[in-house]
Structures are given as C-alpha cells and as structure tokens.
Amino acid sequence: MPIQTVEPQRLYRQIAEQLRQLMASGEFAVGSRLPAERDLAVQLGVSRPSVREALIALEVEGMIEVRTGSGIYVKNATALKRPMANKASDTPAEWGPLEVMSARILVESEVAALAAQHAQKKDLKAMRDGLQQMKREAARNQMPRQGDEAFHDAIAQACGNSVLLDTVQRFWVARNGPLFARLGDYFEHPASWQAAIAEHQAVLDAIEAGDASAARKAMQKHLKQAHKRYSASWRRAPAR
C-alpha cells in the first residue's frame, strides 16, 4: 500500500469527524440526544469551545439538531452517510468561531492601542460612522454586523500597519462564514447588540482621547465579553 498524503485538519473538525463516526456506527442513534457539551469535552479530552465548534459544524452539515432548552440530537441517517466537506480547508471561513474570538482578543487589543496613537480625522469619522450604522441596524431589529465590521475595519485602517490590517480583515472573512453565522443565530439578540454597542462606544472614546492604554483595555474587554456571549450555555440561547 503506497504512503498516503497526510492532510492537516483543524481540531474541531477532528472532533466532528469522531462524533460523526459514532453516530454512523449507531453508538448515537438517530433521534437520540448527545451527551452534554461539558461531558463530551471531558470524554474527548478537549476544551468546551472546541466541542462547541464541532457541534456547530455538524449542525451546518445537517447531521445534528440543537433544540434550545432540551439538548442536541442526532438528526438523520442520510446526512451521516455523506463525507464531511472541506476537511482540510484552511480558508478563514472554516476557522473555528471561538478560536477566532480568542485570537481577536490578542490582536485587536493592540490594534486599538496603535489606532489611539495614529488615528487621523478621517479614521475617527469612519469609526463613528461604523458605530452609527450599528445603532441604525439594531434599531431596525437587524443584527448590526455591517456596522460592526465597518467599525473594526476603521480601527485597523488607523493602526498604521498593513499586516495587522490584513489580519483583522481575515478575521472578518471568518466572521461572515457559515459557522460563525450559525453560532450567532443562537447567541446574538437585541440585548447582546446593545451591550456590544456600548462596548464599541468605550473603545471609540479611548481612541478619540488618544489613550492607547485605555483603548487596549476597552477593546480587550469588548472581545472578552463577546467570547463570553458565544460561550454561554445553550439553555440561555433565546428560543427561535
């Protein structure tokens, strides 16, 4: 047998594939409820965020169903027979959402600090415009995603480093991907939008004041809160 090429695979995809095989073998029968997220993490020896990313990937592929307040159930046998798509994909759209959030905490906090030092009038205007767009979208009962992206892009544009700008923009390619979108369906709602808008205002205030330390702390606080919102118990997700 010839040596086969080894394909790299993200951790959440490895977890998803193992769960898929268990479902396909009948270990978890169609219609049955999977173990709780915490229990799966212990049994697999991985973090809960990685398990959550795996479950979202399986849901996007039609293999499981998340029933808010009840649990996560094996959905149908047809989906289980299909191979999982894009196993070795390295595009931002395939990045794990919670892993992206962790990276954003590290990177964008420093980007905000640099923006506080280098932002020009046009940059500050772009940030204000992004924040106002968020408020308009939320007022229309729409997820304020476009304004959110515009706000963070304006900060990255102002930081004065093209590599960091490219990095932040790649984060947003991931943010607009199917895994992030599905996770947002559960954990983004009007109350979370208003919290995010207030957090963005604190970041903007610090950058406008030219206070790099305050901008760093405000961005770090915002992204940690965002990560916390996405990591909340499924039972706290609003009914859809």
Give me the secondary-structure category. Answer: mainly alpha
- Number of H/I helices: 11
For the record, what is the CATH homologous superfamily label of the largest domain?
Answer: GntR ligand-binding domain-like
Elements, N to C (H/E) = HHHEEHHHHHHHH
Strand content: under 5%
Q: Can you name the CATH architecture of the largest domain?
A: Up-down Bundle
Extract low-pLDDT stretches: 3-8
Strand order of the largest sheet: 1-2
Number of folding domains? 2
Largest sheet: 2 strands, antiparallel
Shape: elongated
Instruction: Give the C-alpha Rg.
Output: 20 Å
CATH fold field value of the largest domain: Four Helix Bundle (Hemerythrin (Met), subunit A)
Task: Please characterize this protein's 3D structure.
The chain has helices spanning 11-24, 37-44, 48-60, 77-81, 97-118, 121-139, 145-158, 162-175, 178-187, 190-208, 212-230, and strands at residues 64-67, 71-74. The longest helix has 22 residues, at 97-118. The protein folds into 2 domains: 11-81, Arc Repressor Mutant, subunit A, CATH 1.10.10.10; 93-236, Up-down Bundle (Four Helix Bundle (Hemerythrin (Met), subunit A)). It has 11 helices and 2 strands. The protein is elongated. β1 (64-67) and β2 (71-74) form a beta hairpin. α1 crosses α3, α6 runs antiparallel to α7 and α6 runs antiparallel to α10. By secondary structure, it is mainly α. It starts with 10 loop residues before the first helix and ends in a 10-residue tail after the last helix. Mean pLDDT is 88; it is low at 3-8. The chain has a two-stranded antiparallel ribbon with strand order 1-2.
